[in-house]
Specification:
alpha/beta, Rossmann fold, nine-stranded mixed sheet, two-stranded antiparallel ribbon, 30% helix, binds the ligand Nc1nc2c(c(=O)[nH]1)N(C=O)[C@@H](CNc1ccc(C(=O)N[C@@H](CCC(=O)O)C(=O)O)cc1)CN2, binds adenosine-5'-triphosphate, ATP binding, 5-formyltetrahydrofolate cyclo-ligase, nucleotide-binding, magnesium, ATP-binding
């Protein structure tokens, strides 16, 4: 690693610790109230765009709780894809999930689609969701994102870019879901880091390309 890379990695590590601590300090009541608000806004936006499929994540630690969003999507007949990590390669497989019963505790203690292995029945590899709701420790309004430092989402995006799956279709929109306190001035970014198209917080929806903001 060059000196510059090491400096960037160090800034990321510091921001990770700071933001994880700050997020952990939100009370359970605050988390649940803010999560409900963000999920309502995220679903209202998804409906207005008539999305037929979304990729979401199941929350862990003090992350914004996506349960209300996933539940609403199921109720509305919107397809929900959830990831399962492959820790050895750093890849994620996507699975179509239709109920909480299809999940069990996986790597890192995160609830994941139970089906394992390449032939899992629920696995979808040739179909892209219309939108990807992304977890993170910190975001900035230009779409910068800081994750837990294993590059899972960066690799997923890179794999889609090289897969040919984008041909003739609009690429999925990448949307960071966050409490407003997770938005920082600037996330240190590497070239490989996936950029968000939009951010949704309890205050509303932000378009990271043009800075437009819609109150939620
Ligand atoms: N809900 C949710 N699911 C997700 C993610 C996420 O951020 N949130 N991920 C987003 O990519 C992936 C999981 N990424 C993770 C990466 C590292 C650690 C972790 O525990 N890291 C240690 C740090 C030390 C180490 O690197 O071993 C830690 O935080 O203690 C957890 C999850 C896939 N699924
Ligand atoms: N497309 C890729 N191919 C291979 N390695 C990658 C790719 N993207 C990122 N990585 C590697 O993943 C590691 C973590 O990257 P980074 O610190 O940006 O993670 P992050 O975005 O915060 O984490 P996450 O996506 O897991 O939440 C780095 O060592 C990086 O080199």
């Amino acid at each position: 690693m060059t000196g510059l890379h090491e400096e960037l990695a160090q800034r990321k590590r510091e921001l990770r610790v700071r933001q994880a601590t700050a997020r952990d300090n939100l009370s359970l009541g605050q988390r649940s109230e803010l999560s409900a608000k963000v999920c309502r806004t995220a679903w209202a936006w998804s409906e207005s765009e008539t999305l037929s499929s979304i990729m979401a994540y199941v929350s862990f630690r003090s992350e914004l709780n996506t349960r209300p969003l996933i539940t609403r999507a199921w109720e509305a007949g919107c397809e929900v894809l959830l990831p399962r990590v492959v820790p050895r390669s750093g890849a994620m497989t996507l699975h179509r999930v239709t109920s909480w019963e299809e999940l069990s505790v996986g790597t890192y203690g995160i609830m994941e689609p139970t089906a394992a292995g390449e032939n899992a029945e629920t696995m979808v590899s040739r179909k892209l969701p219309a939108a990807v709701f992304v977890p993170g420790l910190a975001f900035d309004i230009r779409g910068g994102r800081l994750g837990y430092g294993r590059g899972y989402y960066d690799r997923l995006r890179a794999s889609w870019e090289t897969s040919g799956l984008y041909e003739g279709v609009s690429p999925p929109l990448w949307i960071g879901l966050a409490y407003d306190m997770q938005i920082v001035e600037e996330v240190p970014m590497d070239d490989h880091d996936a950029i968000m198209d939009m951010l949704i917080t309890e205050h509303g929806v932000m378009n990271c390309h043009n800075g437009e903001f819609f109150k939620g």
